[in-house]
Amino acid sequence: MAVMIGVDPHKGSHTAVAVDQAEHVLGELRVRSSGDQVQRFMSWAAQWPERSWAVEGAGGLGYLLAQQLVAAGETVLDVQPKLGARVRLLATGNVNKNDPNDARSVAIAALRSKELPQVAAEDQAAVMKLWSKRRRDLGSLRTQVVCRLHAVLCDLVPGGMPGREVSATQAARALEVLEPTGAVAQARYELAMDFLADLRRIDAQMAEAKKRLEVAVKASGTTLTEVFGVGPYVAATVIGYVGDVARFADSDHFASYNGTAPIEVSSGGHKVFRLSRRGNRKLNHAVHMAAVTQVAHRHSDGRAYYERKLKEGKTNKEAVRCVKRRISDAIFAHLVADAKRKAQAAQPGPGGQRGNGSVSSAAGSHPQRRHFGQATPEPAQSIGRPPTSRAPRTRLTVGKKSRKAS
Description:
Blueprint: E1 3-9, E2 13-19, E3 25-32, H1 37-45, E4 51-56, H2 63-71, E5 76-79, H3 81-90, H4 99-112, H5 124-156, H6 168-176, H7 183-220, H8 232-242, H9 251-258, E6 263-264, E7 273-274, H10 281-296, H11 301-311, H12 316-346, H13 367-371, E8 395-398, E9 401-404
Parallel strand pairs: 1-4, 4-5
Antiparallel strand pairs: 1-2, 2-3, 6-7, 8-9
């Protein structure tokens, strides 16, 4: 008898409820969060040999338990909290919200949903996701420190600091020539020195995080960095949040996931599309960084496509969105090609060894040419990095914000 075990995870405890295909409760167990939590769950669930687990929020509070169950050889499904909440909402009768009922709702949601993602053991993608998040968090902290330092310098230096962005070197030069007079000015000077020390520390941490990102991306063997504008940070963000690219049926589904596909709001014969605010915003930001990098470099194919859209009557923002969609398609093609290459490398080669480097291997093929046609049909060339030149790293300005190309 097939049994679905729903788990409602919490920080201090986990509650599991087993249900059969008719949604009848077969058993219930609550365990404290401890080192033997998996052993207790496995001993209790041994009475149902044919079983699957449904963990609510396997990427959040249920992350550790889900990974432990996968390591134990169990089949684990990831159930979003909204699905369990909808089951409780549509349940007949007066169902109180408590841990056993929540676990039962998670199990029922897993039974009724046919396309829930299955939790897999973490690999190199998890490493890149961790370091890309670290890099992003450090960037946010740096922005806060720079703003606070700039505000203090405006009270010490007439006119403040020139330019849109304050660097540690500029701030240090400005503070070296200052001679504060009075207790208030001295306090502001000392505060500015503290902010300067914070800025230098964060800059050093960002440089270290970038090195680790480069190592992680190189170890993954991805070809994403062949796309013009995709550096280690963008590649790590994409791979980390995409995970298994096989969960996307085609490039349209991938574009919908990353928010680069417009949303249709048509009525009758009037066709209207608007900007999508859906999808993974961190992934959308990574694609945006690649797009503004291409637009900023006149020799890139993305810039040519951007200018063509402007001539067609598109606004600046609309043209950038068109470039983002083209880059999304190119990224998807590279991800699929990487997945195929890894799958072929894992299979025994003609000599009976894994990873045989024969001609039949796709390791050296370009995804835009052999497997998927041209990933970015317009303009004529792909949005890949030109093979004979390397784009210089420049500071990009988008609106009122400026950032360095990754």
